[in-house]
Specification:
heterodimer, A: about 230 residues, mainly beta, eleven-stranded mixed β-sheet, 11 strands, B: about 450 residues, alpha/beta, TIM Barrel, eight-stranded parallel β-sheet, two-stranded antiparallel sheet, 15 helices, about 35% helix
Chain lengths: ~230, ~450
């Protein structure tokens, strides 16, 4: 375990060190402490590392992550794991808006709540939120899954493409072209596997599934009221 | 009007307001119930670079010998913070245009032509293709709201990143690539089902406002190690404030796109009625740079309706460091070429007017994904044509610079210019020709 004190180690230097770990390097476990809300902590990692950030982080923690497993013991700011490609990011506390935005792959787990636009434009990432998500979550979600154990705010899944949404609690409202869909055995199995991967204990049968009604896939004047 | 032959008829009089185009658009809207979508930039008449003239040398200005004395054209972009700024041999770059809106052959031709002349090309909405990277010696990677195809590997392969906040053709607007252009490859690059209409968001998904942008730029620098420049592209609307805020957010380069700048597709009403002309946008942007003591430190790249070396020279004289061309580059490749007139006629248009770039039926094989149409464009030939255009534009710009006594094209200055119209004088803040009057500058 390599320990890095962000009070004394400049962020650029720290990120560069994490980004340049080679595939055959032995040192693969890192502990960063004193982040004090710094932005872009552990951004742009490319290797299968285990990084624990002890404390709260600012914007874009673990942005564009590839392969690394990053754990944050506190809360996270805007754009947590934005455009993540693969790997796993886990936040013990809450996350601000746009968590997992445009994520292309990997797993994001927020044990607490996330603010608005969680999973906005998600492109393949899987997101599990232990608490609730704010309004416009999964807006224009293209691919991947969002599972919410708590409630979802207004306009969930607005203008959704093919992302799959599961909510255990109450949905305040669905966005344009998002509708409730049948929870089939296939989806129960997929959700169960997602929750297992996220190491979150919940019964898939308690969730409801939402997806795209696919009515806005082609511009039609008859849908004007939906735009 | 009377049928009585003894009473003279008045001549039929067309309305200047309800002209032939306005009437046709009303009929089209009434028939379809849908607004008109097209490509390209604003077509309406507006003050432009043709409304400016260079004064040239005289008793008080010393010209340089046209074919003997050096006139430098090289420009460095992004040396404010980046470890490896972009070094261009000419002050003319290729504007962002996506694979998807353009064919792979067209993107390759742009890369070949630009690289031959020592300048950069730019990706667009949809990510970076291997062919594009291969054929562009210097490639600027656009960071757009949709983040289609965005990944850290391509980000690190780029020579610069351009954070797109706005576009001159549609400041404040997103886009839509219609299903006929969403082929299997385009769909895969954008993580979308094949054949659907693909919407491009108008706002970035993970930041709002200039304070957030500063943090976003910080993140991009962390991911790329501060190696490459970060540009911020803005559509011309409030150029003074947008430039000032881009500087504050940490931009290395500001790209300013006027309303004549093209787009792959958006609403006609948006193209023609939102934003301000390129001519009107440059001086406020330059003033913002001067006020921040950042002129020539943060470089300004201007685009939107630039067609020839005179336009380039006028942009530089007004304070830009370089320009970008999009529409002119496509025309050089073969867009709207009269050789395809029969095909344009079949599409209900004519060479020079074709702007249904979203429809995927481009006879020239440029704004299409149709494999048969794409084959019409030879990337080697088209690339050479673009290189030729860039060479001519550069020579023209040098010719004007030398005539104004400048040994570097960026030494051109507003003092070298006069305006032909009151409007252009006010916008460019140069005197009306033959006077010392600059409208809006004191009494």
């Amino acid at each position: 375990m390599i320990e890095i004190d962000l009070d004394t180690s400049p962020l650029r230097e720290t990120n560069r060190r994490l980004q340049t770990v080679g595939a055959n390097d032995n040192a693969r476990q890192f502990r960063l402490f004193n982040p004090r809300g710094a932005h872009a902590v552990a951004a742009g990692l490319t290797e299968d590392l285990e990084v624990t950030v002890e404390g709260h982080v600012g914007f874009y923690c673990s942005g564009m992550n590839r392969q690394a497993k990053i754990q944050v013991t506190g809360n996270a700011g805007v754009g947590l794991a934005e455009n993540m490609m693969s790997g796993e990011v886990r936040v013990a506390g809450n996350a601000s808006q746009s968590a997992g935005a445009t994520g292309q792959g990997g797993l994001l787990v927020v044990e607490g709540d996330t603010s608005s636009r969680c999973g906005i434009s998600m492109k393949g990432i899987d997101i599990v939120v232990g608490g609730s998500v704010g309004h416009m979550s999964a807006f224009m979600g293209q691919a991947g899954s969002l599972a919410v154990l708590g409630d979802a705010g207004n306009s969930l899944g607005d203008s959704l493409y093919e992302a799959r949404l599961y909510v255990r609690g109450r949905v305040e409202s669905l966005g344009a072209d998002c509708k409730e869909k049948e929870m089939t055995a296939h989806h129960l199995e997929k959700l169960g596997r997602l929750l297992d991967r996220a190491r979150i204990s919940a019964n898939p049968r308690d969730f409801r599934r939402y997806g795209s009604a696919r009515q806005l896939y082609h511009f039609k004047i008859g849908n004007l009221g939906a735009y | 009007m009377s049928a009585n032959p003894k009473i003279p008829h008045t001549a039929p009089r067309a309305s200047s307001i309800f002209d032939a185009y306005a009437l046709s658009e009303i009929r089209r809207a009434a028939a379809t119930g849908v607004y008109d979508i097209r490509g390209g930039g604003a077509k309406r008449p507006m003050p432009h670079f043709d409304d400016l003239l260079f004064l040239g040398a005289s008793m008080s200005r010393y010209p340089l010998e046209g074919y003997r004395e050096a006139c430098t054209t090289a420009v460095t972009l992004g040396d404010r913070f980046a470890e490896q700024p972009i070094e261009l041999k000419i002050p003319i770059t290729i504007a962002g245009m996506s694979f998807g809106s353009l064919s792979g052959q067209a993107k390759e031709a742009l890369g070949r032509g630009a690289s031959a002349m020592g300048t950069s090309t730019t990706t667009g909405d949809g990510g970076m293709t291997p062919e594009e990277r291969q054929h562009s010696k210097q490639l600027v990677y656009q960071y757009l709201p949709s983040r289609y195809g965005m990944n850290p590997d391509d980000l690190r392969k780029a020579d610069a990143i351009e954070v797109v906040v706005g576009q001159g053709a549609k400041p404040g607007g997103g886009g839509m690539l219609l299903g006929q252009k969403i082929t299997q490859r385009v769909a895969k690059m954008r993580s979308l089902p094949e054949g659907i209409d693909q919407r491009s968001a108008c706002r970035h998904p993970d930041w709002t406002g200039p304070d957030d942008l500063e943090i976003k730029i910080h993140e991009l620098r962390e991911i790329t190690g501060g190696r490459i420049p970060i540009y911020v592209k803005i559509g011309a609307s409030r150029p003074y404030f947008d430039t000032a805020l881009s500087i504050k957010a940490g931009a290395d380069v500001v790209v300013l796109d006027g309303m004549q700048g093209g787009t792959a597709a958006t609403q006609e009403v948006f193209i023609e009625h939102v934003g301000i002309p390129t001519l009107a946008a440059i001086r406020p942007a330059v003033q913002a740079l001067i006020d921040a003591d950042m002129h020539r430190k943060v470089q300004l790249v201007v685009s939107g309706g630039i067609r020839n070396g005179a336009d380039v020279a006028k942009c530089l004289a007004l304070g830009a460091d370089a320009v970008s061309i999009g529409t002119a580059a496509l025309v050089a490749l073969g867009d709207n070429d009269p050789r395809w007139e029969a095909h344009y006629q079949a599409l209900g248009t004519t060479a020079g007017c074709y702007d249904d770039w979203h429809a995927g039926e481009d006879p020239a094989g440029i704004t299409t994904q149709d494999p048969d149409l794409c084959k019409r464009l030879d990337p080697l030939v088209a690339g050479q044509r673009l290189a030729n255009l860039l060479a001519v534009m550069t020579l023209e710009c040098q010719t004007i610079a030398r005539a104004n006594g400048k040994s570097d094209v960026r030494n051109l200055e507003p003092e070298d210019l006069v305006a032909l119209t009151v409007e252009a004088a006010a916008m460019a803040k140069v005197p009306l020709a033959g006077t010392d009057w600059i409208p809006g500058q004191g009494l």
